[in-house]
Write a structure and sequence with these properties.
homodimer; Aminopeptidase; Alpha-Beta Plaits; 6-stranded mixed sheet; 4-stranded antiparallel sheet; 14 helices; 35% helix; globular
């Protein structure tokens, strides 16, 4: 391994420069105006896989292409590892809140700031470099490798499950390794025991035929903006619980061992509040912050729009109003059941005089890891060797819906080992990634491949 | 009078064409990008007053200029009438909902469609043409006339009251005549007995330092979007009443005579709902639709914005949220007291974990007419002669804050006689004005000047 790790040390500047080239491509999958950029990122990545010594190609889907790389040189008796990541990124808005441009990677204080640096182009590229380090120094890899990078993770991965189903034989593997999550803290590498799921909706409230003068019509006309506020407010009770009937029926009561493990992690609510610049925390009463983030479900407004929102006072009674509302789910909730419960709730709370439509935008199931076994053990050892400290088990509040599908369709266990940090501003302005984790993490992944071989 | 009315008949096409030139100028006072257009509209109007035979000039204010016209030829023993109107218009957005462009007047079905056609450029211009008809045919007017047209009515008239105070001697008059309101129905001209006031605010809710990933932070972090919905929802109770403590303390209990008069007017809730394309009406329980519109106060969301509102699913926990919320006030409520009550309400309902700021954008007091006396009598007769039907007394849900100030500062009674129609889409897409009312109304105003002389 020492030759491999030396190679990684010697090439670290080049690795970083290449990652920056990747980050400069605005592969915003949600916006059709960026379709050619998104394809450009896929082509760039495929070429880098070929440069590292893999076979790689773009495979078309009804949406953005999948990048598929293969190295089969370990032979049929060696295990096969599928590395999954995504080359698409979230929209960068609001642009005015970025200190440096979102698609011009900029180093400050040992971090690189750029959209996609943490989620997930930076982390995906670490695997490419760990593979290169083996192939460049040994001429081979200790395992067979499949690299599968999609371009639709940020818009719901609608075409990935069909792709995996249709190509299950080609994608057959023993383990799926994913780096699209955080370490617990700086210098505290971790392996995930869970992911939350997601059910993302738009609620459209429609009232009168058009916007109206709020003086000439205000009073008898039901205002879609007020109605939307009433509907959104009805989604929580006074204790911060989601007030949708049946919402908690499928929520797993986690075992005491997991809850003990969560409690054993250092966490400082005061520092957390100070970092976020808030005076108080909220959410569901009776649970700690880490529990609220990892093992309890949520309901959050992601966006809300109605009427006139520009400069000055326009006295308009809006004809319609819209909210984007999403739920983070925990085992064993499903987006399908949450949608049904929400539909019933809306029917109950929507006032007469407006019509309310629910549109489902995105859904993904929550995931619970098998924490006993060779996979987590190998990862823990690799992380300890590379970072010089014992890895911890942690939950993750975000969602990677494909993980459950991978386990089901490919009958393989998933390992989630990520290198971003809490506060990395994922999906927010000024996303960043720690440069020392980029470097050490490539080493950890190279060691991990060795242990899996 | 017959010579004057004949002149109006003979010149009606030209009058209309001139009004369309006025409407083509996008004098959107709320938007600084239209400042030169707004001034252009003022200059255009001053020139038309001069063309009609008045002296006219632009008088500067800290904002948009006042257009001031004078004709003093009736002599000091004759009464002086001040005609007030405004040459600024509401923003035209949302543009995509206009059938024809907002600043290209287009005739359809006996109406002209354009921003400002009803509110108020079209109606203001009727006075200019009624003055011209007298001066062109008689060489004189039966009264002394002051025309005062402001360019900031749609943004709160902040500079008009100081202007009136500073120029009270020059503006001294016996009556203030304003055409910036509706007839009760097609062919049913009316005089107003009341106007509602206005208190217009922005509520800003600020949470964490920036937008956050809704998976990585959702749960313990208080979401400003959810908090805003809760705050807005708290503004009404289950009976549609404004749920702010003390809000109804200053609301006048109207006399039975006025309520009888309102009840005597033909009004069809079914047709009203059909026109608005709503299945049901709402608002304060226990009051009729006309009462809700004219003599009861309201609270309406005018705009609401937070988070990501573009295409697709962005899983963001917004760092801030904003609502524009306005109250229509009735005698004897005041914007000042409503602001105090709202501030106390916000302090009570705002959840910990966010900060809430109230910004006052616009305020105006409600008005109650002196319905007995020569002024209303003269107007009723003039309307009956021009339209061939008896004028009715009606309330008005909108606000013209300057009316109360005129009465106080100039010690003159105000007469509100308007020619737009319910459904004219004031402040909304596809604003229109009835062309027959434009024509007959110029006649009615010419007769009115005669009766006041």
């Amino acid at each position: 391994m020492s030759e491999i790790l030396r190679y990684i040390d010697q090439n670290s500047s080049r690795f970083r420069a290449e990652m920056y080239d990747f980050l400069r491509i605005p592969s915003v999958s949600a916006k059709s105006e960026h379709d050619s950029d998104t394809r450009g990122a896929a082509e760039w990545l495929a070429q880098r896989l070929r440069d590292a010594g893999l076979e790689a190609e773009l495979r078309e889907t009804p949406g953005h292409p999948v990048v598929l790389g293969h190295w089969r040189g370990a032979g049929p008796d060696s295990p096969t590892v599928l590395i999954y990541g995504h080359y698409d990124v979230q929209p960068p808005e609001p642009l005015e809140e970025w200190t440096s441009p979102p698609f011009e990677p900029t180093e400050r204080d040992g971090r690189v700031y750029a959209r996609g640096s943490a989620d997930d182009k930076g982390q995906l590229y670490m695997h490419v470099k760990a593979l290169e380090a083996h192939l460049a120094t040994q001429g081979s890899l200790p395992v067979n490798v499949i690299v599968l990078a999609e371009g639709e993770e940020e818009v719901g991965s609608a075409n990935l499950v069909p792709f995996v189903e249709q190509n299950a034989a080609e994608l057959a593997c023993d383990a799926v390794v994913i780096s699209d999550s955080n370490m617990y803290a700086p210098g505290m590498p971790s392996v995930l025991f869970s992911l939350r799921g997601l059910a993302y909706f738009e609620i459209h409230v429609r009232g009168p035929r058009s916007d109206l003068h709020s003086g000439q019509f205000g009073g008898p006309v039901v205002n879609p903006g007020n109605a939307l506020a009433k509907i959104v407010a009805s989604l929580h009770d006074a204790d911060g619980r989601v007030a949708i009937e049946g919402f908690y029926d499928d929520v797993l009561e986690w075992d005491e061992e997991t809850r003990d493990q969560i409690r054993s992690l250092p966490f400082d609510d005061t520092a957390y509040k100070a970092d976020l610049k808030v005076a108080a925390l909220g959410g569901e009463k009776g649970w700690s912050t880490l529990e609220k983030l990892w093992i309890r479900p949520t309901c959050d407004v992601n966006g809300m729009l109605c009427g006139y929102t520009g400069e000055g006072a326009k006295t308009v009674l809006p004809g319609k109003a819209m909210a984007k509302v999403s739920f983070r789910l925990v085992p064993s909730q499903t987006p399908e059941r949450v949608k049904k419960l929400l539909e019933a709730h809306l029917a109950r709370v929507s006032p007469p005089g407006v019509t309310v439509e629910l549109v489902e935008l995105h859904g993904g199931r929550p995931w619970k890891a098998k924490v006993e076994g060779k996979l987590v053990e190998a990862a823990s050892e690799a992380l300890e060797q590379a970072f010089g400290t014992r890895a911890v088990l942690q939950g993750e509040g975000g969602s990677i819906p494909i993980v459950v599908d991978f386990e089901e369709k490919l009958k393989a266990s998933a390992l989630l080992v990520g290198f971003a940090l809490p506060g990395c501003n994922l999906h927010a302005p000024n996303e960043w990634f720690p440069l020392d984790a980029f470097h050490k993490g490539i080493g950890a992944l190279a060691i991990l491949y060795g242990k899996l071989g």
